[in-house]
Amino acid sequence: MQTERSEEAVSPAIRPAELVHETTPVSDREKNSDVEGDYYVGAANSLESPSPASPSRFATITRHSRPLIHLFIFLLFTGWWIASLILHRHDKNWVVPFLLWLAITLRLVTFYISANYILRPMQWVWRHTALVVYNKTPAKLRTPAGATIAIAAILVGAFASEETADNTRANRAVSLFGLVVILFGFWATSRHRSRINWRTVIVGMLAQYVIGLFVLRTGVGYDIFKFIADRAGNFLGFAKDGVAFLTSRDVANTGNFFFGVIPAIIFFISVVQVLYYFGFVQWFVRKAAAFVFWAMGVTGAEAVVAAATPFIGQGESAMLVRPFVPLMTKAELHQIMTCGFATISGSVLVGYIGLGLNAEVLVSSCIMSIPASLAISKLRYPETEESLTAGSVTVPENKDEKAENPLHAFAQGALLGVQIALSIIASLLCIIALVGLINGLMTWWGRYLNINSPTLTLQTIIGYVFYPVAFLMGVSRESNDILLVGRLIAEKIITVSDVDADQLGIVLIAERI
Question: pTM score, two decimals?
Fold first, then answer.
C-alpha cells in the first residue's frame, strides 16, 4: 500500500499545515480519523518533486526575508485595527475589522506553526462531546434524533423572534408548511427513496436555516454580510471607471444592463483569473469544500463545486473538477447542475446589486444555497454508485491554460470575460426576442377571447401555475404580492437567470416578506 510522503521529502516551499493525504485509501484513513467523516484535502500539484534547477537570487532573498515581511504585515494590520477601534469606537462596528485582522494573523501564524495545533483541540472537544452522544445513540435512532433536533431548532428560531408588520408568525407558519410540502414532494419523486442519505438532507436544511437566522436576525451576522455586500457594490464602481474612460461619465452612470452589468462581469472575471494565478481561489475553495465534505458527507467533487459556485459561477466551478467529469456518477452530475441553478455567480451578484436589489438578502441567499442545493439534490437523486472522489477533496490544476505571470492572467481573464459577456448578450437577445414572439402570438389569440387584463402571455400562465408555490414560500397575502412573486418565478424560468431590470424590480417586495 502506498503510504504518505514524509514531510522531509516535500519541497521547502510547502508548509507542514498544507501537507495532504492524496493516495491513502479511505479504509486506512478511517482508522486514524478522530471524527466520523473526517476529511482529507488532496493537492497533488503541491506535492510535485522540487525542480532540479537552483533557485534564483530573488527567490533566495525573498525566502530569507519572509519573516520580516510577515512581521511588517502583522504590525501594519494590528496598528490599523487598534487605530480603527480608537477613531471609530462610536460610529463604526468593530466586528469586521477584528475578523479581518484575525484572519490575516492566523494565516501568518500558519506559515510557521502547523494548523494541527489548532485542529487537535477542536477534534478533542468534538470527540469527547458530540461524538460520544452519537456513538451512544442506537443506529436506528440516529436519523430520527437528528431530524428532531433540526425541526426543534427551526421551530424555536421561527416563532421565538418578535413579529413585524409583514413578518407575522402566521406567515412563518405558512413558510414552514411550504418547506414540508416541498421536501415531501422531492421525497415522493425521489429516484431511490431507500438510498437517501438523510444526514445530508438534515444537515443541509438546518445549515440553511442557521445561516439565514445568523444573517437576518443578529447584528454580527448582518454586519459581516453587509460588509461583503458593500464591497461587492464598490466593485461595480471600479468597472464604471473603465466605462467612463471609454465613453463618458454620463454613459457610465446610466445604469442599464449593457453599461452597468456587462463591464462588471468582464472585470470580475479578470480579477478572478489573477486570484487563480496566485492560488487564492484554489486555497479558499479547498478549505470551504473540506468543511462541506466533513459536515454533510458528500463526495469531494460535489463539495468543491458547491463551495465554489456562489463565488465563481456554475460553469467556472464545474471547470475545477473537469478531469473527473467523465468518471462522475449520475448523482454527482445531478448535484453539480442543481448547485449551479440554485445560486448566482459573484459577477451576476454584483450586477444585481448594481440594479438596486437588497444586497444583504442576495449575499446571504447565495451562501444559504450551498447546503440547500446539496440537501435537495441528494433527496431527489441519491447516490447509488461508487464515486471516484469519495473520501477526498481535490482541486486539480489546469496546466493547459496556466498563465505565465499576473498580467497574462489578467489578460486571459479579460478575454474570457468578453467571451462570456458576448454569450450573455446573444442569449438575452435571442431568448427575450423568442419570448416576445410567443407572447405576441398568445396576446393576439387571447384578445379574441376577451383576455385583456392581464394579457395572455407565458409569464401570466406560468405565474398562475406558481401561485401556490409563492404562497408556500410565505409571501405576504396582502395586496397582489403572491401573484407578483409567481410571475417573477415564471420570468426566471422562461428567461433563465438574466432578466430585465424592471422585471427584477419585483424582487424588491421580498423586503416586505
Answer: 0.66
